[in-house]
Amino acid sequence: QQVEARAWGWAKRLPVNHYSAEDIEIVKPLIRDTLDNADNGQEVEWSNPDSGHSGSITPLTDIKQDEKRCRQTRFTSFTQGEQAVSEFFLCRQPDGIWAVEQPASE
To answer: How far is CA 53 from the centre of its chain?
Structure first.
């Protein structure tokens, strides 16, 4: 349960309060797969015809920081007729979980 909260705590800043449980079940594995495998700029879309909600995940950068793979990523969501766009700097932790971190200053 604690791993689950750490893994997805940052996602609460997305408009998930409008997501159905089914939306979340669609999005969670897609986020991890996209961050692990998608190229920079590759938009990966999702939709749930039952709720009418949809969105996309677009990794923008792929860098190493503190020996971890990190990606600046844009999340776009369409829920209840509204669009929300958020960006997060996410780093893959040693246990495989992606978590929000602060990008290093240049």
So the answer is: 16
**From first to last of its 106 residues, what are the pLDDT tens digits of the chain?**
334 445 555 555 566 567 888 998 999 899 999 999 999 999 999 999 999 999 999 999 999 999 999 999 999 999 888 888 889 999 999 999 899 888 887 5
Consecutive H or E run containing 20: none
8: number of Cβ within 10 Å = 18
Query: How many DSSP H helices and E strands does the chain contain?
Result: 2, 6
Residue 68 tokens, joined: 């971890």
- Backbone phi, then psi, for 25, in 5-degree steps? -65, -30
**Phi and psi dihedrals of 11, rounded to 5?**
-70, -15
Model's pTM, two decimal places? Answer: 0.82
Pairing of strands 68-79, 98-100: unpaired
